[in-house]
Design goal:
mainly alpha, 65% helix, 0% strand, elongated
Amino acid sequence: KRDWNSDVCSSDLAPRPEALSWNSHWIKTMGRPLPAAAVGVVVLLGLGGGVLLSLRRSSMAWVTGAVFFFLSAFLVSKQAFCNYYSWLAGMLWLVIAERLRHPPTES
């Protein structure tokens, strides 16, 4: 029986060949998915970088940290498409606009 839960929420879906991710590219070139350890390392580096960036205690630092984390997660995911990266680009434009509006002050 097919339903929304089995089609959308299943984590055992194979990576899509048209996905814009390292995992999809690796499958096309090597014939197998990325090793789980590599995926874990990339996501942990993204999480660590995101946390370090967000420790600066400003809203834009938090947004930059979130972008860093989501970029690392999308790069190794099973399904990543252009709109995912467009969303990240929009968040980065917000950070750039805020930085131009309020440049950092010298201490």
